[in-house]
Design brief:
Shape: globular
Strand order of the largest sheet: 1-6-2-3-10-11
Structural class: alpha+beta
Number of helices: 8
Radius of gyration: 20 Å
Largest sheet: 6 strands, mixed
Helix content: 10-25%
Distance between the termini: 9 Å
Number of strands: 25
Strand content: 35-45%
Length: about 375
């Protein structure tokens, strides 16, 4: 398999696309994973045209989305476009589909999309990549919908829009889609490894969610949600805590594994907290904190869990929470540097800061847990041998 990553910060959409296409033409990519700033939204069609004109082909499948910046081997930036070209020499077969309507029913849209994509698969499905509109989708319900269909490991995230929380796009083969979920499946002998980690540590006592609706929590263990968090943190919540103070949510009693939900909005009158992702009554939660060093160490934990014997002939895709980037205040460079220092500074790498992350945890025996929706987490997928 051949991989190549490239990025551009040219403001002109067509020229940025042409720069991407020129760089990838030599490997004749079957698929391009493409991540771009929402600032290209007025001319996304020009971006696609620039790529295809420079490739000299319209057959390459382009799949991706917008983020809160871009990650690529050569640079990490708040603005621009990055791409990973993949050429398997016919060893892999690619299937992709999208479905609109995540704002109305994220579960049904994701389930329908998974069924449509799976129906195209020729052979044994190996791995899937899932992206959804990060402003309109409920990430928890997206994962539940995909989990109801797919029985293979998959990863991905919610697309972003430079911290505006007003619009984001899924990029699908010449279209910039709003209110959508999209899935890409690679079938055949796909060498890959996925893992997720955060670096956040739970503190204080367990609480149980007693009253909630979708992503809004009213009461935890007999008190308002904000009172519970205040008691655990030792301070009242403020606007600066939004996107950076998460709750660990546990899928079952007696387990150490948890996924994070960060705060998106506070209602001071009712004491309600709103999260990036829905929860259900009865869920056990704990408040989490982390230092800057802890956040970076979370990247190392994710890398350690990949269980790679060697880092040769591989490419990496990194989906990391935009909230982590805001806390690090370096555009996410420290996270990408840790990945490259561990896997090899010249490996092809792309990714983006997301509004929610999707991925399983890899177990010590190499098996995978079910796939979860995360906040404040770094999900890493390596492809190749």
């Amino acid at each position: 398999m051949r991989f190549k990553s490239v990025s551009s910060t040219l403001p002109d959409s067509y020229r940025a696309g042409a720069e991407i296409g020129d760089a990838l033409r030599e490997i004749v990519p079957e698929v391009i994973l493409l991540f771009a700033s929402i600032s290209y939204e007025q001319n996304f069609s020009d971006l696609f045209d620039g790529i295809r004109d420079s490739l000299g082909s319209t057959e390459t499948l382009i799949f991706g989305g917008t983020g809160d910046g871009i990650y690529e081997t050569s640079q990490v930036a708040n603005y621009g476009v990055c791409a990973l070209g993949i050429h398997s020499g016919g060893k892999l077969r690619w299937s992709a589909a999208f479905e609109k309507g995540v704002s109305t029913d994220s579960y049904s849209a994701a389930r329908t999309c998974a069924l449509k994509t799976l129906a195209q698969v020729d052979g044994q499905a190996g791995i899937a990549f899932v992206l959804a509109d990060g402003v309109k989708a409920d990430g928890s319900r997206i994962v539940e919908g995909v989990n109801s269909v797919l029985r293979i490991p998959y990863f991905g995230g919610l697309t972003g829009d430079d911290r505006k929380f007003t619009r984001s796009r899924v990029l699908f083969d010449g279209q910039a889609l709003e209110d959508a979920v999209a899935i890409l499946i690679a079938s055949g002998e796909v060498p890959f490894s996925i893992n997720a980690a955060s670096g956040w540590s739970p503190i204080g006592t367990f609480g149980k969610i007693e009253e909630c609706e979708d992503n809004s929590i009213r009461r935890i263990s007999g008190v308002s949600a904000q009172t519970f968090l205040k008691e655990q943190l030792g301070k009242p919540l403020g606007e600066t805590d939004l996107g950076t103070i998460p709750l660990a949510t546990y899928s079952s009693e007696g387990t150490d594994s948890f996924s994070l939900r960060s705060l998106s909005k506070l209602d001071p009158d009712s004491g309600t907290v709103h999260l990036f992702g829905s929860v259900v009554p009865g869920t056990s939660v704990r408040v989490c904190t982390a230092t800057i060093e802890d956040i970076i160490d979370g990247v190392s934990s994710a890398l350690d869990g990949l269980h790679l014997e060697k880092a040769e002939g591989i490419a990496a895709v990194v989906i990391s929470c935009a909230g982590r980037k805001w806390l690090l205040e370096d555009q996410g460079k420290a996270e990408v540097e840790r990945v490259l220092a561990t896997l090899g500074r010249k490996i092809p790498l792309v990714g983006f800061p997301s509004f929610g992350e999707i991925g399983p945890f890899r177990k010590p025996d190499g098996a995978y847990t079910e796939t979860f929706f995360h906040n404040e987490t770094c999900v890493i997928c390596v492809i190749g041998r």
